[in-house]
Q: What sequence folds into this?
């Protein structure tokens, strides 16, 4: 489990921005018997995947984040004055 994460509440795991500035976020929904990982791109559901354990859902979310960062997505979008 992630610090600050409640056992039954959806939790945003990460937010990324594409090279064009398009936002994406991963949200995990813990559950029994399955945990669900959802990916939103531009506030539209891109995918939802069910996993037998929360650990598998978290592993998949980290794998997707690593792939997107490798493709040029950024973890922080900042304006020219350094604010968000």
A:
């Amino acid at each position: 489990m992630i610090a600050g994460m409640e056992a039954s509440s959806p939790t945003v795991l990460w937010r990324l921005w594409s090279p064009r500035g398009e936002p994406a976020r991963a949200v995990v929904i813990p559950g029994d018997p399955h945990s669900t990982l959802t990916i939103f791109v531009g506030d539209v559901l891109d995918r939802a995947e069910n996993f037998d354990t929360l650990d598998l859902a978290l592993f998949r979310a980290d794998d997707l984040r690593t792939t997107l960062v490798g493709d040029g997505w950024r973890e922080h979008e900042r304006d020219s004055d350094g604010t968000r």
